[in-house]
Design goal:
The structure holds 2 protein chains of 2 kinds. Chain A is mainly α. Chain A has 11 helices and no strands. Chain A has one domain. By secondary structure, chain B is mainly beta. Chain B has 2 domains: 289 residues, 3 Solenoid (Pectate Lyase C-like), CATH 2.160.20; 34 residues, no CATH class. Chain B contains 4 helices and 38 strands. In chain B, the strands form 3 sheets. A 13-stranded parallel sheet of chain B has the order 1-2-5-8-11-14-17-20-23-26-29-32-35, with helices on one face. A 13-stranded parallel sheet of chain B has the order 3-6-9-12-15-18-21-24-27-30-33-36-38, with no helix packed on it. In chain B, α2 links the parallel β1 and β2. The chains are: A mainly alpha, B mainly beta. Chain A: Keywords: Membrane, Transmembrane, Transmembrane helix. Chain A: This is ABC transporter permease.
Amino acid sequence: MLKIIKYSFFDLVRSRWSYAYFLFYLLLAAVLLFLNNNLSGAIITLMNVNIILVPLIATVFGVMYHYNSREFTNLLLAQPLKRSAIFTGQYLGIAGSLSLSLVLGLGIPFAAYGLFRSTMIWNFAILMITGVALTFIFTSLAFNIALSNENRIKGFGYAILLWLLLAVVYDGIFLLLLASFQEYPLEKFSLAATVLNPIDLSRILILLKLDISALLGYTGAVFKQFFGTSTGSILSSLMLLLWIVLPLWRMRKTAERKDF
Amino acid sequence: MIKLFSHITMVFFLMTSVLSAQKTEVCKTCEISTIARAVEKAKPFDTIEVRAGTYKEYNIGITKPLTITGEGNPVIDGEHKGEIITIRSDNVTLAGFTLVNVGTSYTTDYAAIRVVKSKDFNIRNNTLERLFFGIYLEKARQGKVLNNTIKGDAVNEYNSGNGIQLWYSNNVEVSGNTVQNVRDGIYLEFSDNIEIRNNKSIDNLRYGLHFMFSNHDTYTENLFENNGAGVAVMFSKFIKMRDNTFRKNWGPSSYGLLLKEITDSELTRNTFESNTQGVRAEGVSRMTFTENDFANNGYAVKIQGACYSNTFSRNNFLYNTFDLSYSGRINENNFDHNYWSDYYGYDLNRDGTGDVPYRPVKLFSHMTNRIPEAIVLLRSTFTGLLDFSEKVTPVFTPPGLMDNAPEMKKIIW
């Protein structure tokens, strides 16, 4: 498995796409920081990127990689290797290389700007952690979709749909529910709904770190109380981990059973 | 001749009164070693000079016109027993003291300095610490409160007092004071024609400055920072608010300026910076908001209801999370000729104002007004889409609520 991780990882790290991805983040962070001169504002803008672009790229890239390396996968399948090892290896390789692009791309400009001497370091750390978690979550979801669909067009379609569902539609339904049940106390519900969606969870974790959290009013106070305790932080990290582990487990099972 | 004679007698009369004014010194080793004793022995219009030292006295009642000055910053320690100085006479000047340890009571509002039913008082250059109420003006008029420093240690609202309180007091000037860490920095109740200038009100539990049923008052060039709410103007009329700075009144329910049931007032050339809510208005009518800067606030202006015939013009709205939050569908207020940093219109005829109207109310801020819990969706992709679609085709926000002539450049005032 380690060999497969190594192979996938280095194959991707050398590819043009990784460089493009890396350079995009590098440019974005540099422009934001050096033209704006506002660390907190830059982190908020990057958060928006984090919750839209990172999941989208992870999904599309994951699906694409799987379809493109079909022949190589078939070759590997002919070898005396465990199927779960092959796919887990590929998965870790791609998620790892995407995360590396993200962390380096954003990290280098921030480090150059003097992040380590500022108090914003923890906010930035949260940004990085959620970014990496989202990459791992959406790559594993993408692998699931790609494995279950032989048809590429269908696979891409489902991948985009999944992204749309979690990044946009989920919040829409959330808002609708809030509107229709506004006579009831909704703090607990909104807390649960936020924790269940990894994108919302990432967004709230970053917002609560920034001083913008005062805007969130009473509901925000409930959130802050929850995420401020160790139970809250354990639960939210557990949730992110679950979002990685569950799809991964399903992927391995599908791969075992699938007739290639 | 008679006129001249009367003049001469008058001058003579005045001179005798000045000449007869005596100066008494108070110090630890002097003949008179307490302030209370000096006050008792003094004749009207005398001067009492208090030398450096700590005087453990309380309930000093001043019932005749006197000038009492502290030399070398003498300290009067009330030992938490009650009020320190009570002025019950016209023409009293009190300057240069440090007053500490005012008593706390739940039935009596003990103050460091209280002025009762008097006029022409002058309280200046005093420092007040560890207090319940600071300077309490009760039915006083035509006086001055200048350059005092009040430093409280308030923790809870229910057992703390106000820095400077005016109750049924008219024509008073309050300027150059610094008030920190009390309940309300400056509090006015039933007080008209008050001028509040150049004060600093910082870190107070409730409001930096608080008006209740007080009319025709002016406050200018003050700084309100990090209070529960900067200024609250309630149930008042004809208030002029100019050149003040409202900063960092930041917290779940903090405002820069709270306006409640107020009419015919003006807010001009003020700066609102980094407040959770810059201005929050409820039941405000016929008020003008002109040439103010709203920068980096959560909500720049939040209009809650029953606000009619107000005019917002030549204000700068800069990088606020929400420029305007508005409840209700009917708009009776005018928002023309402001600068909005979120405006992306164009100006083809180059007249300095944008050709496309600007709608300051975002759909999402409208939503959070109706469903406060929806705020957890702040900055999510979905709400971004909502705001965009509402901007293109407004459905939910009040149709008339827009700036018909948004300025293209930041207004310099």
